[in-house]
Amino acid sequence: MDWVMETNKKSTKYTRSSREAATAQQEGWVKTIFDGMSDMMVAIDTDYCLVAYNNAYQKEFNAAFGKEIAIGMSLEEAMEDMPEKLEKAKERWSLALQGEDFIFVKPSEIPGQQETYHELAYRCIRNKEGIIIGASYLARDISDRIRAEKEVKLMQEFIALADAIPQIVWTSRPDGIKDFVNKWASSFTGYPKEELLEKGWQRFIHPDDAPTYAYQLKQLVDSGSQFEAEYRLLSKDNVYRWHIGRAVPVTNKQGEVVRFIGTATDIHENKVLLEKFELKVRELEQVSEAIPQLVWKTGVNGNANYFNRQWYDYTGLTAQQSLNDGWLSAIHPEDQEGALSALQHSFSSGTPFQFEFRLLRSDGIYHWFISMAVPFRNHLGEIVQWFGTCTDIHEQKLQRDELNNKNQKLFQINSYLDEFVHAVAHDLRSPVAGLKLSFELLKQVDESKQDKIIKGCEAFLDRLDNTLKGLVQLIEVQEDSQQSFYEQIDVQQVIEGIVLDLKEKLMSAGASVKNGHFEWRTIRYPKSYIYNILRNIIRYTLRFRDESHPLRLEIATRQTRDGFYMIEVQDNGPGINLEKERKYLFKPFSHINKGSDQQGMGLAIVKHMVEKNGGYVDVSSSLGKGTCFQLYLKEYI
Amino acid sequence: MRILIVEDDELTLQLYDILLEDQQGIEWTKAGNGSEAMAYLNQCKNEEWPDVVLVDLDMPDMSGFELIEKMEEKYGKKLLSGKIYILTNSISKRDEEKADKHPLVQGLLSKPLGEESLQRITTSIV
Question: Any chain B CB within 8 A of the CB of A306?
Fold first, then answer.
C-alpha cells in the first residue's frame, strides 16, 4: 500500500467541501479498516517517534511490554525499560529509514506466546518529492507457516532415522491408515513404499495371524493405547517370517492422538527355535509318562517341579508332598546326604548326575534305585531344567552284593586252602622223610644205635598220626556244617563237660578251671561246635603251659555292644610272643616251637568254627604272665 | 670236611648224627635255626670255616633263603661260593628256580639227606 499521510490527527474531521467530505469519508473508512486489521501496523518518522499505529499493534505492545504507547512518543521512551530490544529495533528502523525494504521474522514478544511468529515487512515512507520522511512495517502472523515448516523438518529427520534402521517402521493417521513406511519395509516385502501405502499392509500378514492383528490394531485406534502382537509377514522371497509388531500413539498438547508410530521386528529365528524347544518339551513329557521308570524334573535351583505317574504310584505320595524338596523324605535316611551332595555337584558343574539310593515304597519297603539326570538346555543353550529318571535295581543290587560276598568268601577259602595244602604237605612229608632216613640207617648201623633210631621212628609216626588226625577232624567239621543243628546251650554246662572229659590230663598238670563273671550263660549255637571250640582252647593251654607252676584257667563271658557273645579264656601260661607268632597262631600245622611240639590243628579249627557264621577270635598275651583267648561268637538265628 | 647243618627238627638232627658218625673225615656242627648258624659262623676261625653248609628251607623263624641272604651279606661270595646246599621237603618249581638262580647255592637236595646225597656233596667238594 502506497499512501501518504497528511494528517497526524487521530480523529476524523469533516471538511466543508464535498471533495473534502469524500476524502474525509475515505480517511474514515481507511482508519476503520486500519484499526480493524489483525496484522500489526506501525510507522515512525525520522526522529524515531511514533507517527501512526493500529489497534493490533497497540494491543500487542501492551501485552508484550505492559506499556501504553501514544502518538508522538519516541522509541526511546516506549522502550526505555528494554535497552537491548530498543537497540535492535533502532537498527532495523534505521535500515528502513535508509530506504531498504526488507522482511524480518521474529517470534512474539508476548510472554507465553513464543510459538506465534510474525513476519515484519519494513518499508520506508517518502513524500511527494521522494524524500524519506519515515518508515513503517506491517507484521503478519505467520505462525502457521512456521509450524508447518518445523513439522516438515521433524518429519524429514524422522524419515531419515526410520530409513536407516533394519526394522520395519510405519506411521499412520489417527484412524489407522498408514501414511509412511520406511525403506526396510519396502526391501523386506519387495514392494515400493508408495505401493505399500496405497494397497495396504494386510495382504502381507499370514492369514492365520491376520485376525489377531486386525483386532489389535482396532484396539489401538479406538483406545489410543499401545499395541504388541506377534505375526508372520510375507517376505519378498515368498517366505513367512515371524515378527513382533509394536505401536505407540503420538498425542498433541491437548492429549488427542495425532498419529501412531509402529515397528515390526524380525524374530523368526528365535521363534522357530523356541517352538522347536517347546515341542521337544512336550514330547519329553509324553515320553516321561509312558516309560516304566520314575521320571522327575527340577528347575535350575534344584526344586522338583514334575514327577511322572510312576513316581506317584510307587511312592504313594501326593504332588504336594513330592514337589520342591518333599521328595527327599522318600529317600532312605542313610542315603539322603549322599544324594543331595551328588545333586549339588551336578547343579553347580552342569555335569550329569548319577546316584544309587533306597527309595521308600508306598507299603513301607525300601528298594534300591539308580537315579540319573541330565541337564536340559533351551534354544539359547542355557540350562533350564534337569531331567532325571529312577530305575529299580533292587534285584540286581542284592545279587551284586551277594556275588561280591560269595567272591570274597571264595577268595578267602582259596587262600586258606593254599596255605592249608602247603602246610599239610610239609607236615606229612617231614615225618616221612625222617622215617625214610631212619630205615636207611637201620639197615646199616649196628644194634647199639638201632634203639635210638627206632625211638626216633616212633616219634615220627606220632607226628604223622597227629597230622592225619587233625585232617580228619577238619573234614568232620566241614561235613558237620551241612547238618548243623543249633539249640540253646548253657556254656557253664559245656565247660563242666569238658573238664570231666579232660580230667586226667588236667589232674596230671595240676590244672584248675575257674568260672569268672558270666554276663551271659546261654547261646543258640551247635552244641558240638561250642564243645570243640572250648575244648581245643583248653587243650592248647594245657599243652603249652608253663610246667614250673600249676595251670590256672579262668573263663568268663561278656556281651559286646555290636551283638557278639564273647567267651574269654585266661591262663597263666608262659605267654606267646604275639609280635612274632600272631600270624601263625591260628593257622593249621604252624610250627611255634621247634621240634616235635607241633600245635596241629587245634586253634585252626577253633578259628574256623567261630568265623563260620560271622564271629571272630582274638588273643592277647603277656610273656611270662599268661595268654587270654577271646572268642567273639555270633548267635545262630 | 667240615659241614654246618642248619635244621630245626631235633629228631632229624639225631638221625644226621647217626648218619655222619660212620663217615670218614667228616666233622659237623649243628645249628637249630638261622640265628644259631650266624652265631656259629661269627666265632669261626679261618681254619674252622665249613666246607659245606646244609640249609633246611622250611624253618619257622628265618627261612633257608633268608639265612642265605644274611650269610651273603656278612661274608660275601668268596667265603661261601659253592658251599651251600638247600634241603627241602617241597619240590616246588618256584623253590627250584630260586635255588638255581642263586649264585651261592650249589644245589637243591630233597629230604631226607641220605647216603646218596652225602656222596654227591662230598665228591663235588673234593
Answer: no
Q: Which residues from B are below 8 Å from A433, CB to CB?
A: 12, 89, 110-112
User: What CA–CA distance (Å, rounded) separates A235 from A246?
Assistant: 19
Q: What is the CATH number of domain A147-266?
A: 3.30.450.20
- When the pLDDT of each residue in chain A is averaged and rounded to a whole number, the result is 86
Residue among A50, A52, A10 nearest A27 (CA): A10
pLDDT 10s digits, A12-55: 444 456 677 777 788 888 888 888 888 999 999 999 999 999 99
* Domain span including residue B111: 2-125
C-alpha separations of A502 from A374, A514, A574, A610 in Å: 71, 15, 21, 22
CATH level 3 topology of A484-637: Heat Shock Protein 90 (3.30.565)
Contact B90 A425 (CB under 8 A): yes
CATH superfamily, region A18-141: PAS domain (3.30.450.20)
Which ipTM value was assigned to this complex?
A: 0.86
Q: What is the grid cell recorded at A507?
A: 589232674
Q: Which CATH class is domain A293-392?
A: alpha beta
Domain range list for chain A: 18-141, 147-266, 293-392, 394-480, 484-637
For residue A211, say if its preceding peptide bond is cis, omega within 30 degrees of 0.
no
Closest CA of chain B from A499, distance in Å = 33
Lowest mean pLDDT among A44-58, A209-223, A324-338: A209-223
Q: Do A440 and B89 touch (CB under 8 A)?
A: no
CATH 3.40.228.10 fits A394-480, yes or no: no
Which pTM value belongs to this model? 0.44
Identify the helix (H) or strand (E) that includes residue A132: strand A132-141
Confidence at residue A17, expressed as pLDDT on a 0 to 100 scale: 62
3 state DSSP class of A329 = helix
The DSSP element (H or E) to which A322 belongs, if any, is: helix A319-322
List beta partners, residue A559: A565
Contacts A436 to B, Cβ<8 Å: 112, 114
Residues in contact with A400: Cβ distance below 8 Å, sequence separation at least 6, in sequence order: none
User: Is residue A48 within 8 Å of residue A67, measured between CB atoms?
Assistant: no
At residue A4, the pLDDT reads: 47
Q: Which residues contact A36 (CB under 8 A, 6 or more apart)?
A: A55
Place of cell 509412511: A180
d(CA A276, CA A534): 78
The number of folded domains in chain B is 1
CA pair distance A342, A356, nearest whole angstrom:
10
Residue A482 in grid coordinates: 551241612
B11 neighbourhood in chain A, CB within 8 Å: 434, 456, 459-460, 595-596
pLDDT, tens only, A423-451: 778 788 888 988 988 888 888 878 888 88
Scanning the structure block, which residue is given the C-alpha cell 663217615? B23
For residue B112, give the nearest of A437, A584, A596 by CB distance.
A437
Answer whether A293-392 and A484-637 agree in fold: no
B114 touches chain A (CB under 8 A): yes
Per the CB < 8 A criterion, the answer to whether A358 and A401 are in contact is no
